[in-house]
Amino acid sequence: MLTRWSEPFLQVTDVTYQYDHMKSFSLAKQSFTLEKGKLLVILGPSGSGKSTLLQLIAGLLRPNQGTIIMGGKPIHQLPPEKRNLSMIFQKPYLLPFLTVGANVEIGLKLKGVPSSERRVKSEEILHQVGLTGFYQRPLSSLSGGQEQRVALARSLVIEPQLMLLDEPFSQLDPLLRRQMGHWLGDMKRKWEIPMIMVTHDREEALTLGDQFLILRDGVAQQSGTLENIYYEPANRWMADFMGIDNVVDGIKRGTRVTTFLGDLEVHPHCVNVPDGPVHIVLRSEWLQMDSASSIEATIESSAFRGEYTEVRAHVNGESVVIKQLGFSNYERGTKTGVRLTTSNVWCLPKEVM
Ligand code: ADP
Ligand code: MG
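That is the input. Now the predicted structure with adenosine-5'-diphosphate docked in place:
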């Protein structure tokens, strides 16, 4: 049997952009690929270039350099309406004087789809987004979450080959945001539409994303899977951005590193980090209070955070954060033991801060 080599659905290669040569912001070379049915999350602080990158893919901006290939065809020279994609923004941008149905049908109307067919398709898509029977409702009767679902229905009804979402749920309250996130995950699985979503919300990002791209000042800091960005931060900034509490000093020699917890094995992906002073990255959940451990910990503080207790302790001259599931009450000054639950540790070249 012949096996056909298939290219990734979307290939963004060396795309750069500058708004104005006099201004400081520029998007440095961005490259990534996306498969059908996968969701790429773009994360980064405000002003890091997330929306700029999305607009380059949408065709609202033209790259200075680089190529964008979708379904085997270059699209970076095409106007937005020829790119066969949909973009969803923070605000739904609906037409308030029209009904829900009329808003959903706009794209189909522009494509010349006859009215009876438009109605069938729109009612079906409204059903899919959980708005069955809303076709004839005035837009003014909807809540914020319902409006954003109308915007999603309007995007989905034209059967786009790619969906771009720019902080789509950031204006909704947390509970609704979570519901919409689950719903989007279902849609992605059911329809296999590749999606690129920009979000500020780390929990939403980590729940929904299959792949990640993290930007800082227009420069990609890291891209990869959840495992990569969660466990294997590419640099000190990424470790902080991913909320890693414990970045401590160590001295590396080959595959071993001397730390406040003793002599430990280096993660296999870090053996090429130059020997000498390094940063050791320890997620707080990798440390456990354990009175049987020979490594002594002195409690500095402990605070219950709803689902876990955040304990700060002094261990061999380092102050570290340890997260214990559930509620525990440790008195300041208590001496106990601490244990590392991983067999090796992530190391980064030491950066001068
Ligand atoms: P993000 O979406 O990550 O918050 P943006 O991509 O919107 O960031 O913006 C990145 C940078 O580009 C910011 O410094 C912003 O001020 C600048 N910028 C955005 N839009 C324009 C524009 N139309 N003209 C000039 N500069 C812009
Ligand atoms: Mg933005």
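The mean pLDDT is 92.
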